[in-house]
């Protein structure tokens, strides 16, 4: 009956590799649907070279004791300067004329060499001095120790959906050679203190994703400003990044404190770092993932002090990024994207990863709340009992999860799939396989842009073209099996023994394409009675039940079990979905969400009063945990937006439609 099948797995491309589940061989995508994903390569071992030659000998001028980078900044900024009377920063010169300077304390004496009569004023597009001694310029593609990487905001696929910590990052390069670049993030303070074995407390910052605090061997860089020469031990342990900024290992920092050379408060401790392999950072600079910036140490130190003193971790240091963007002449770019989707996602990431449990976050236990300045932190103790009860109920329900179970993603305001795996937000999952090591499910309510076209011939020989949407079932596929799974939920088809039941009780059956065609031509079913799914979702179980597959997901409240009595309703809602197109995908998406709603307890999720939407921030209430920090966007709305962005990016290949 079927004449032709034109089903193209475009973005749903599925790759090779092996997880065995009940005889299936499951294929794992080598890259997230083939789209450039993230930037950082993990490197666990660092070879720190010992090179102390910070001074780049510049011919005849002795600048060995000065900040040669400031010196170069002066040259660079003068090169790119453009006359603009209004923007001139002037100071009287000895002969009474006004002349432009880029003032640099450390250049007393030699600065005059570079202020000649023809000096043109600095270009405001390039440089906005805050204080005479502060400077920054766009360093193009010059990667070197002491340079600062600023998160780019012009790439088509930004950091909204994953690795949110790179969004608007300010990252200081500590080390750079042909094989490896190591940087630490300067603008992600936490409100947490680390207690060492000597009962000393250290304020911790998030330095990057590699070897972070959850790694068995965390890498902690301890930055300080104690000059060399102060103490032998300082000289021995510390490495200079740029003028006035040094760093040592956590071990050495502890030693320095133990010996009484300094206090823990003399250090900024960055746990984790960012690493780039050979050529990687350069490639990313070429793709505009970052802006390279050179700036002076005082600017960085001032920002670090400010963040230590009063920045709330949920602010995620965005203002420091904005300051540097302004200083390198990119204030327009910075302004355009202020408060956008990526900003909100970053703030939620920060709440989850930088804010302590005491303060309503998720990042661990703060040791001594009073030690750390935080603003209006909310305590959540009152919610603990509720949470406990919920967990108990979930655990009981999880026991019954097995093949044939229908699950729906958590209805919590703060979706567990906000920051990653957004495809599961408001998803409906059918469990199709389960063993000791793996759970396998199909997402049922995410139509793809892929049509399934078939030509049917009726008894009179009339041919009719039928187009059905193919659902995106997940990122894995079954090796050696037809890539499409056909499902139905119809009394007539069950009676006709079309295929076989998935599990005991769900009423959902699986059949082959041939079964479906036979049933349609026999007049038992309509084409729309079938749901075609491409791809699988897989949950690997951990050793000793560390992660318990889908059952574990239900226990943790990330998924809820859908009552059998609701499956019919869900199925009806699923049948209203059509092929995903760029034009109408928002509407089609909301049909998927309707199916998810039909799966839940009625009414409660309907009575959703709208938040008062006023100007930016006006509707914001510090105490309202349902809103993204310092915004009037509901977290539940942001979660829907994240799903939208995921679908636009991975199923439509059009990230820009998403956010
Ligand atoms: C980079 O790696 C290569 C090959 O391992 C090695 O020969 C070279 O010395 C390394 N370069 C640096 C600067 O470490
Ligand atoms: C921290 O490191 C672990 C691996 O050790 C990684 O799975 C996790 O994503 C990292 N966390 C962040 C926030 O980068
Ligand atoms: C689960 O994994 C273990 C270790 O790899 C293996 O020995 C066992 O046979 C697997 N169980 C099933 C049901 O595949
Ligand atoms: C149910 C629904 O809204 N489906 C829409 C999905 O997108 C297609 C293509 O734009 C529309 O024709 C459907 O109406």
TrEMBL record:
Keywords linked to the UniProt accession: Signal
Keyword Cytoplasm: no
PANTHER family in the cross-refs: TRANSCRIPTIONAL REGULATOR (PTHR31984:SF17), TRANSPORTER, PUTATIVE (DUF179)-RELATED (PTHR31984)
Entry-linked PROSITE patterns: RHODANESE_3
Statement: the UniProt record of this protein carries the keyword Ribosomal protein: no
Protein name as catalogued: Rhodanese domain-containing protein
Domain Rhodanese residues, every copy: 586-605
Segment forming the signal sequence: 1-23
Pfam families documented for this protein: DUF179
Superkingdom in the source lineage: Eukaryota
Region (Disordered): 81-100
InterPro entries to which the protein is assigned, alphabetical: AlgH-like (IPR003774), Rhodanese-like_dom (IPR001763)
């Amino acid at each position: 009956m079927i004449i032709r099948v034109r089903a193209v797995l475009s973005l749903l491309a599925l790759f090779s590799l092996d997880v065995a589940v009940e005889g299936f061989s499951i294929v794992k995508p080598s890259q997230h649907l083939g789209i450039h994903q993230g930037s950082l390569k993990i490197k666990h071992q660092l070879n720190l070279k010992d090179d102390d030659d910070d001074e780049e000998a510049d011919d005849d001028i002795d600048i060995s004791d000065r900040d040669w980078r400031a010196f170069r900044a002066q040259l660079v900024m003068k090169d790119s300067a453009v006359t603009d009377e209004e923007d001139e920063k002037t100071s009287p010169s000895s002969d009474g004329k006004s002349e432009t300077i880029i003032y640099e304390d450390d250049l007393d004496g030699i600065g005059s060499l570079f202020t000649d009569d023809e000096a043109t004023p600095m270009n405001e597009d390039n440089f906005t001095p805050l204080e005479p001694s502060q400077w920054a310029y766009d360093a193009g593609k010059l990667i070197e120790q002491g340079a600062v990487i600023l998160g780019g905001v012009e790439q088509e696929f930004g950091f909204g959906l994953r690795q949110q910590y790179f969004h608007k990052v300010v990252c200081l390069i500590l080390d750079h050679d042909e094989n490896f670049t190591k940087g630490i993030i300067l603008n992600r303070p936490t409100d947490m203190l680390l207690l060492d074995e000597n009962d000393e407390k250290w304020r911790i910052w998030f330095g990057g994703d590699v070897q972070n605090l959850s790694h068995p061997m965390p890498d902690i860089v301890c930055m300080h400003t104690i000059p060399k020469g102060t103490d032998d031990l300082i000289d021995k342990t510390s490495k200079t990044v740029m003028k006035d900024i040094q760093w040592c290992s956590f071990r050495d920092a502890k030693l320095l404190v133990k010996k009484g050379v300094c206090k823990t408060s003399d250090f900024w401790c960055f746990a984790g770092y960012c690493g780039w392999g050979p050529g990687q950072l350069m490639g990313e600079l070429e793709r505009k993932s970052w802006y390279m910036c050179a700036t002076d140490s005082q600017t960085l130190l001032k920002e670090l002090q400010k963040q230590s003193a009063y920045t709330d971790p949920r602010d995620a240091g965005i203002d420091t990024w904005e300051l540097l963007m302004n200083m390198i002449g990119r204030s327009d770019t910075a302004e355009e994207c202020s408060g956008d989707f990526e900003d909100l996602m970053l703030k939620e990431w920060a709440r989850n990863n930088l804010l302590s449990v005491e303060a309503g976050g998720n990042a661990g236990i703060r040791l001594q709340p009073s030690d750390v300045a935080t603003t209006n932190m909310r305590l959540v103790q009152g919610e603990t009992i509720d949470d406990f009860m919920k967990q108990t109920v979930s655990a009981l329900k999880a026991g019954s999860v097995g093949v044939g179970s229908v699950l729906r993603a958590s209805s919590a305001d703060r979706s567990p799939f906000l920051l990653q795996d957004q495809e599961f937000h408001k998803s409906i999952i059918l469990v199709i396989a389960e063993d000791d090591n793996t759970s396998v499910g199909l997402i049922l309510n995410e139509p793809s842009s892929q049509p399934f076209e078939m030509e049917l011939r009726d008894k009179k020989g009339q041919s009719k073209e039928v187009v059905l949407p193919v659902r995106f079932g997940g990122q894995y596929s079954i090796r050696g099996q037809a890539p499409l799974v056909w499902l139905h939920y119809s009394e007539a088809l069950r009676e006709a023994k079309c295929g076989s039941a998935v599990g005991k009780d769900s009423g959902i059956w699986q059949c082959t394409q041939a079964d479906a065609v036979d049933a349609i031509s026999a007049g038992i079913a309509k084409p729309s009675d079938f749901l075609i799914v491409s791809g699988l979702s897989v949950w690997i179980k951990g050793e000793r039940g560390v992660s318990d597959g889908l059952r574990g997901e239900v226990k943790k409240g990330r998924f809820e079990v859908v009552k059998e009595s609701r499956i019919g309703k869900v199925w009806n809602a699923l049948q209203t979905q059509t092929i995903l197109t760029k034009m109408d995908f928002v509407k089609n998406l909301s049909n998927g969400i309707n199916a998810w709603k039909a799966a839940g307890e009625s009414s409660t999720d309907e009575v959703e009063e709208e938040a008062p939407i006023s100007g930016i921030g006006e509707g914001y209430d510090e105490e309202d945990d349902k809103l993204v920090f310092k915004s009037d966007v509901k977290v539940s709305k942001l979660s829907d937006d994240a799903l939208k962005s995921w679908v636009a990016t991975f199923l439509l290949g059009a990230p820009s439609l998403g956010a």
